[in-house]
Write a structure and sequence with these properties.
heterodimer, A: about 150 residues, mainly alpha, elongated, disordered C terminus, B: about 850 residues, seven-stranded antiparallel β-sheet, 26 helices, 35 strands, about 20% strand, globular
Chain lengths: ~150, ~850
């Protein structure tokens, strides 16, 4: 196995974002918000810079949760649930705030997951051989060639 | 490399911080903020109900079909009672898990485990009175006696089935089915155990009969320091009361020689009532006040005893338009969301076909009808809890004097466990008279008593058998079987209205009534030997009851059970003022050919009898000695034309509310001048003083001239209008419904049902106070000429899920009022004997919502 960043290509911000949205949706269906760290980390596989990894995770999970909330508002009274919940904190009629906070929480989980993932991949890559080194090690030892002697003027 | 390790380490900061923040309790949100994720948190609770389902229920003997009607009411069709109760247990847990858990944990003194240590005083109280200990004792008795009595074995099997069914649901809880309240509280519900059923039953019993009036009476009497005045103003027997039982029917003492629940009984109460009375044991005032205050603060799942009331009545064929009995019942409790009640219809061919309300967590239809009989309950309100002041051993406070020697208290270790993980050590001492209820409060340093010594004897303590009765009476086919079933019903004492398809009606006062020796039961006493105390009971054969009385109807509304002159035993009150009963009696006595529609109108009746009897005197007083003040005259004119209906769109009810308070305050200055905290005398006493023109109490003793009744009534008018004008400054129209509003709070305060104007006051359709938080907890009208078309409605809905369409749909019916028919809304209690018959009747898909099929 070669280095992670050699194996998985940098597909660009937008494509990575779309993938992260898919990861966010799929993992959230498992019903555990901690998995959003993994969604962000998975998105970070497809970009190289830490800042971009954060953005991909943040926006990817944020959009995924927003999509879910739109769906739940239509099918499962998400606004009514949010209204009751915010009422417990004494903020009656501000249910939308619960959804905004929830999306923000999801986005932060994704973003921090992205940073964590990128940092992890980069550290792991330190220990993993690069593809070229792997190939090199699998080839037969080349014949020694005579080196040209160069002289400095 | 080093930089990358540092980067990785730093990248953990954000996730760890978020995990901590999202998991930590925030205010009331002990479940953490993580629950606001879109899936797997609170938003799952808004999802629609699934359609028809097939669910495996291990332990069933055969398939059970549960047809759920358009109100979410399950109609359970099973092959055996065991299977039916398993299905009922599953449905109870599915629809009311949070409610049952809360009532159970409150009653068991474990609520601190769910909500936190701040609730420990409630836990201490319930552990002190020992509902859980009594529940365990009852379960042990059932298990020990199941081999002797088949009915005990059957009830035990039903209880176990209820628990199994509930646990089948709890074991398969998902985020979608986990109540939102538990998510917010961060609590995972436990599996039920059979003792939990008994705890629930004990909670119901305590809520209906657990009032310790001894403290209140002693505090009032000692504060007044005038026994003559105390006897005048605070009698046990209210004037003008129409007793429930007027044509007493005894049944065979040979057949029923014991008191209910197989308790010992005496047919010679005179041997005890002739004994010399022990002196009242005076509890130091500071301790007394602390006890009363603390008891008022304890969580009461059924509400304050003063709000626990009810109506029920039945007419026989001589009074009804159908020629057959019609039974009506509306038990009054503090209204809660979800409701105290859960409707169900249970069919087991050849054994059971019964519909009505269950108490979630108990395997029985407590109010309703089967294919032959209908029944409902009101609370007797008798004083069946007494306080005994134990004489402690000065050298050892763990001992008390009894029968000439010091005995050791039994000490129960009842440590309180809290949600925070702390353990609060707590012991309860118990004497031969019962648990020391002052174990719970640190009042001892206020007085000379350093240790608990106030033992409570309560008929609901220890082993009770009401569940056996419930298992039997819902299967009764006739009056004899019903009466036989009630031989087991020992607690709480109830007025049970009955009607059957053989044309019988009855009012059966059921429950165990103690016979006291050596004391009255009104005040705390010291009983140093076994000759003083609740030494025996009224034999069931002689319990108050009416069967087919000559007047053609029976009625009860928590008033005096039976006139003392007509009964050989003492039943100690306090019981209700009797105004609702007077109105019910009037309506039934003065109407013939009464139909089901009439019965609905009667249940919606809002005539204020108190106003009907008092206002004519006020008007006369104004006309006689009034000074012509135009504001008062205008108010009096409104009262002149009022028909005494407490309707929300009228002004007169508002004036009446202020006027009644003012007359009380102006008349009973003898009480308020001693201590404003003492409750003023009850309205029947006021009525008696007005009617008899009592010169002593109408005189204001703080002034030199002697005031007359009419002067005091006019002064009350001024006082009432002054207060009303000041308090309603911004609502000058004084319309009653502006402030007479119904609010039914969610058990954990998440939301409420209602919010609109409400009819009634201290009326048949009861709605006391300004903010209505208690009232008819269900309404039943059962027509024995056509039992398939009977009616019910209750203020709530079947589902405990706030977002379910069945959260408050029944409330909408219950609260609706048709101004033309003068009736509230009801639903027909569908009563089909098979699921297929039900489906066949549902020709336009409006009756059945879906079906759950339970398979073994």
């Amino acid at each position: 196995m070669g280095k992670i960043d050699d194996t998985i290509p940098d597909i660009g911000f937008l494509a990575a974002l779309v993938l992260t949205i898919v990861f966010g949706l799929a993992l959230q269906l498992a019903g555990d918000w901690k998995l959003m760290l993994i969604a962000g980390a998975l998105g970070a596989l497809f970009v190289r810079r830490t800042r971009i990894a954060f953005l991909v995770g943040f926006l990817g999970v944020g959009i995924a949760w927003s999509i879910l909330f739109v769906y739940l508002s239509i099918t499962a009274q998400a606004m009514a649930v949010a209204d009751i919940f915010i009422g417990l904190l004494g903020l009656y009629g501000l249910g939308i705030l619960v959804i905004v906070i929830s999306v923000l929480i999801g986005a932060l989980l994704g973003g921090f997951g992205g940073i964590l993932g990128r940092s992890l991949y980069e550290l792991l890559d330190e220990f993993l051989p690069s593809d070229s080194e792997e190939k090199k090690s699998s080839l037969p030892e080349p014949e020694p060639v005579e080196e040209e002697v160069t002289t400095e003027e | 490399m080093k930089r990358k390790i540092v980067n990785l380490a730093l990248s953990f900061i954000g996730p760890i911080a978020l995990i901590v923040i999202l998991s930590m309790p925030i205010g009331p949100l002990t479940g953490g903020l993580g629950i606001i994720q879109p899936v797997g948190g609170i938003f799952d609770n808004g999802a629609p109900e699934p359609g028809s389902q097939t669910i495996t229920l291990t332990g069933l003997d055969a398939e059970v079909e549960v047809v759920i009607d358009y109100l979410g009411i399950p109609h359970i069709y099973a092959e055996s009672i065991h299977d039916a109760m398993m299905a009922l247990g599953y449905m109870h847990a599915r629809d009311r898990l949070f409610q049952v858990t809360m009532q159970n944990f409150v009653a068991a003194g474990r609520i601190s485990e769910i909500v936190g240590g701040y609730a420990n005083s409630s836990d201490m109280f319930y552990r002190a009175i020992g509902l859980k200990r009594s529940a365990q004792a009852s379960l042990d008795w059932y298990e020990a006696n199941a081999g002797t009595y088949p009915e005990v074995a059957e009830e035990l099997d039903a209880i176990n089935a209820e628990v199994e069914g509930a646990n089948a649901f709890i074991r398969t809880l998902t985020s979608a089915t986990m109540p939102m309240e538990f998510k917010v509280l961060g609590y995972t519900p436990e599996l039920w155990t059979p003792v939990d059923c008994f705890v629930n039953a004990k909670m119901l019993t305590w809520g209906l009969s657990g009032s310790i009036m001894d403290f209140q009476r002693q505090w009032i009497r000692n504060s007044l320091d005038n026994d003559s005045m105390y006897n005048d103003l605070f009698p046990d027997l209210m004037p003008y009361t129409i007793p429930i039982v007027q044509e007493q029917v005894n049944i065979s003492y040979v057949d029923y020689p014991l008191a209910p629940g197989m308790a010992p009984a005496t047919d010679d109460p005179g041997q005890y009532t002739s004994m010399a009375l022990s002196g009242e044991a005076v509890i130091p005032e500071d301790k007394l006040e602390a006890l009363i205050t603390k008891m008022n603060d304890v969580i009461k799942p059924l509400g304050d005893m003063q709000f626990v009331g009810s109506n029920n009545w039945a007419i026989n064929g001589s009074k009804s338009s159908t020629g057959m009995p019609i039974v009506a019942g509306d038990p009054h409790l503090t209204l809660q969301a979800p409701s105290v009640w859960y409707e169900a219809h249970i069919v087991v061919p050849g054994e059971l076909d019964v519909t009505g309300t269950t108490f979630p967590g108990l395997p029985a239809i407590l109010i309703g009808h089967n294919d032959h009989v209908a029944y409902s309950f009101t609370n007797v309100g008798a004083d069946v809890a007494d306080v005994f002041v134990e004489q402690l051993n000065p050298a050892n406070p763990d001992q008390y004097m009894y029968n000439g020697a010091y005995r050791n208290f039994t000490i129960h270790q009842e440590d309180i466990h809290t949600k925070e993980g702390t353990v609060i050590p707590f012991n309860v001492k118990e004497s031969v008279h019962g648990p020391c209820i002052d174990s719970i409060w640190t009042t001892y340093n206020l007085d000379s008593e350093d240790n608990p010594n106030l033992a409570m004897t309560w008929t609901g303590s220890g082993v009770t058998h009401e569940m056996i009765a419930a298992g039997l009476f819902m299967k009764a086919d006739n009056l004899d079987e019903f009466i036989d079933a009630m031989y087991w019903w020992d607690s709480p004492a109830q007025n049970c209205v009955f009607g059957d398809d053989a044309g019988n009606i009855a009012m059966l006062v059921v429950g165990r009534f103690p016979v006291r020796a050596g004391y009255t039961g009104e005040f705390p006493v010291t009983a140093l030997n076994d000759s003083v105390g609740m030494v025996s009971n009224i034999p069931y054969a002689y319990n108050p009851r009416e069967i087919n009385p000559s007047r053609g109807f029976v009625q009860s509304a928590n008033q005096r059970t039976i006139a003392p002159d007509n009964y050989g035993y003492d039943i100690l009150g306090p019981q209700a003022n009797g105004y609702r009963a007077r109105r019910i009696f009037y309506l039934l006595d003065n109407n013939d050919g009464i139909s089901v529609d009439d019965m609905k109108r009667f249940q919606a009746d809002v005539v204020e009898v108190r106003a009907e009897v008092i206002i004519p005197y006020v008007i006369n007083a104004w006309d006689s000695v009034g000074d012509g003040n135009t504001t008062i005259s205008d108010a009096v004119d409104l009262l002149r034309t009022w028909n005494y209906d407490m309707e929300p769109d009228l002004v007169a009810p508002t004036i009446w509310m202020y006027l009644l308070d003012a007359i009380h305050e102006e008349t009973f200055d003898e009480i308020s001048s001693v201590d404003p905290a003492i409750p003023l005398s009850r309205t029947p006493i006021l009525e008696e003083f007005i009617v008899t023109n009592n010169p002593y109490y109408f005189d204001d003793h703080t002034t030199v001239p002697v005031e007359t009744r009419d002067e005091i009534l006019v002064r009350s008018l001024f006082s009432a209008i002054d207060t009303l004008s000041a308090e309603w400054e911004n609502e000058p129209n004084w319309v009653y419904g502006n402030r007479h509003i119904i609010f039914i709070d969610h058990l954990a305060g998440f939301t409420y049902i209602g919010g609109g104007p409400r009819r009634g006051q201290n009326t048949i359709d009861v709605a006391s106070g300004w903010i209505v938080t208690h009232g008819p907890s269900t309404r039943l009208i059962a027509d024995l000429s056509n039992i398939e078309i009977s009616y019910m409605a209750y203020p709530g809905g079947q589902s405990g899920n706030i977002f379910s369409p069945h959260w408050e749909d029944n409330f909408a019916l219950w609260n609706s009022f048709n101004n033309v028919t003068k009736q509230h809304g009801y639903h027909v209690m569908y009563f089909y004997t098979t699921a297929d018959a039900f489906r066949s009747a549902d020709t336009n898909d409006s009756m059945i919502e879906r079906t759950i099929t339970f398979v073994p």
